[in-house]
Automatic annotation (TrEMBL):
SMART domains: HTH_LUXR, REC. Residues 5-126 form the Response regulatory domain. This is Response regulator transcription factor. It comes from the Bacteria. The modification 4-aspartylphosphate is found at residue 61. It holds the Pfam family Response_reg. Transmembrane segments: none annotated. Keywords: DNA-binding, Phosphoprotein, Transcription, Transcription regulation. Residues 144-209 form the HTH luxR-type domain.
Amino acid sequence: MTEIRLLIVDDHPVVRTGLIAMLNGFAEFEVAAEASDGLQAIKAVERAETLGQPVDVVLMDLQMAGMDGVTATRRLKESRPGLPVLILTTYDSDSDIVAAIEAGAAGYMLKDADPEKIRQAVTEAAAGRTALAPEIAARLFDRMRSPGISLSNREIEILQLLATGTSNREIARALCISEATVKTHLNHIYSKLGVSNRTAAIAAAREQRIVRD
């Protein structure tokens, strides 16, 4: 049986070591490389290709000290559309899920999942299929079932920036939109969340796990 070659991307050495040990324990996997951030991951993929031993699946963390997982996923998918990137993270907010899927992730799993579930997700991703943790799939379905009250992807993006203390001007600059457009989005957000100001919107978004704490 041909082994599925994996690249593990996580900025915590202990976590990487644990994932490598777990995944190498499955006969069908070989952890071919590891990286501590997104930029290192891109270089590792390139290096493996140069050696004639390309990676089959990338397991990507989201929040890392260097290049983040969403940026790295987007760059990998732009240059290698056929390379599956499976997100493996501790974050399950709407903003993280939406950003990862929009970047082209093949799946989204949480680090506390049972090893067998992670094995199945990697196998599904390697076969070109989508692999979502049950709780992630449930959150996506909830968004689809309640279109009237669901926030748009742009509104979620703005909320996540709000939660980090970003001003309207900084949000406009980051998203390449006008401040007037930011204010319009904020009014829609307030209406959908049933609040009247930024502080209440952030609190409601965190409570509903739309953005991370």
